[in-house]
What we know:
The protein has nine helices and no strands.
Amino acid sequence: IFLASALVPGIRAVSSEHEDNKTNGKVDASTPLRFYAWAGIIALYSGMSVILTIFPLYAKEVLHISESQTGLLLLVRGVATCVSFLVLGKLEFWHFKRRYIFGVQLLFGLICLMAVSFATVGPYALFFFLFGILFAFAYDQSMFHGASGSVNRSNRMIIHEVLLTIGTILGAVGGGYIYEQLSFSLLLRMIGFAALVLVGLEMLLALLLERRKMRRA
Length: 217
């Protein structure tokens, strides 16, 4: 930050978020969709942590997949995520659309359940490709809906990063324990069912809130 400020003096001329809100009298117009997106990023980041920390062990110890093939699978996920970030950044169809938030979480749960029976590189390549797309989607949804309309976007970004960390810890610690005590297949099954239960609860909550709004109207 110091180096950027020194090299680009114009940065220092920009007023802070607090000063800008105070001067322009901005009113918070945050969207409640951020809560659904935040729940989703915890779920997807837990899955990401499992893929990055536990899958390589499973691939070597159980599937007997070479390290180069495992690295290639992780590369597929990474490329899919990067390309998805670029594409989603140019598209707006998913903005303020609750169905896409629920859809991403639903598909995540389903592909985790499908991956339970995978044992070769080919099917896992497809799984990692799809997961990479869904991960980028969930990340963008959390960041966009968290900051959109807020007069305190810096705090929203802090929340976003904290939730990423929570998801990472849950996936690494909880997933590692389950893998050690049980199996990777059971771990995927538990993640899949947990994601489906999560999105089911979110949809139920959204329905109840919608009905309450209609009654008040």
